[in-house]
Design brief:
The protein has helices spanning 58-63, 143-155; strands spanning 3-11, 14-19, 23-28, 42-48, 51-56, 74-79, 89-94, 99-104, 108-110, 127-133, 136-141. The protein is mainly beta and 157 residues long. The strands form 3 sheets. It has a 5-stranded mixed sheet. Strands 2-1-8 form a 3-stranded antiparallel sheet.
Length: 157
């Protein structure tokens, strides 16, 4: 079986996996700049590699959890995969440093996230698919959809 080199990211309310090729850098938490009219799951932005990069709280987007912006938090810089020149990168707010893992393709399921595992009316908001890792629901974030949602905010900030 073919395995996928992935990174497991912990965030308030859950965890997510990203393909190894999408992750660029892990930074310590720094207080973000405010983005006017940003949804609650965007905790702000930071200047990185000459780009205004929005910081996304996956726990807030997917589970409605309060952001975890503490000293031990990490900012995981990823390729936004949005196809927009204005937004090539996203920062994902994590509660800890990501962990490398080799994921078997059979562990990933696309489509509907099991409703019994989510306590939310909109279970697919920001979710491309899911996996169960160590008996815990693990989200595959929909980075292109998240990025596309944020492009208007970046273009007007």
């Amino acid at each position: 079986m073919q395995s996928l080199r992935s990174f497991l990211i912990s965030f308030r309310g859950g965890q997510g996996i990203l393909p190894g090729s999408s992750m660029i850098e892990v930074l310590p938490f720094a207080n973000p700049l405010t983005i006017d009219a940003a949804p609650g799951w965007v905790v702000g932005a930071m200047l990185w590699r000459a780009f205004n990069v929005p910081l996304v709280d996956l726990g807030g987007l997917i589970y409605g959890a309060d952001p975890d912006m503490e000293a031990h938090s990490r900012i995981v810089m990823v390729n936004a995969l949005s196809g927009h020149q204005a937004l090539p990168y996203l920062g994902l707010l994590g509660t800890d440093a990501p962990r490398l893992l080799n994921l078997d393709r059979s562990q990933i399921t696309t489509g509907e996230t099991p409703l019994e595992m989510l306590e939310k009316d909109e279970p697919n908001k920001g979710v491309l698919g899911w996996a169960v890792i160590n008996r815990k629901l693990t989200i595959v974030p929909d980075l292109p959809a998240i990025g596309t949602t944020l492009v208007p905010l970046i273009q007007h900030s």
